[in-house]
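Reopening: Gluconokinase still failing for me.
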Amino acid sequence: LGWKFYDADDYHPPENKKKMAEGIPLNDEDRIPWLCALHDILRREDASGQDAILACSALKKMYRRVLISGASAIESNQPEQPGEKPALKILFVHLDGPMDIIAGRLEKRRGHFMPPELLKSQFDTLEPPSAPENFITVSLEKSLPEIVLEIESAILRG
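Support: Ran it again with your exact input. Result attached.
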């Protein structure tokens, strides 16, 4: 697509990385400043007319609202109103799959601060996207080329 790519894990503060490396799940207080920083990156790219892809475990609806609207999503604490224009237009791609497949992939990952033991806490926190969120769900049980094609098709459809 020729878009900029950001991995949200690169933007975790050292305290978050340390906490996860010790096997301690992050909480909302840990994640909100990180998500606000990610919103700022997306907002900067949007302002410059640059499309971007952000790989991010935006597990809760509130987290996705912070990515769209920044800190104002927390301050207002109001549900999104139908027809309300979001601060940023984001298509969320929910990569969905069974815990055992994801656990197998995490076991193969080397040099990452999040140990596979934290996967269950992420599943416990997960609030899958739902209407009126702008999202698609893609199965992780498909091949990588099929996953990429499905995401690209959704992006190109707008």
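The two ends are 13 Å apart (CA to CA). If you still see a failure, please send the error message rather than a screenshot.
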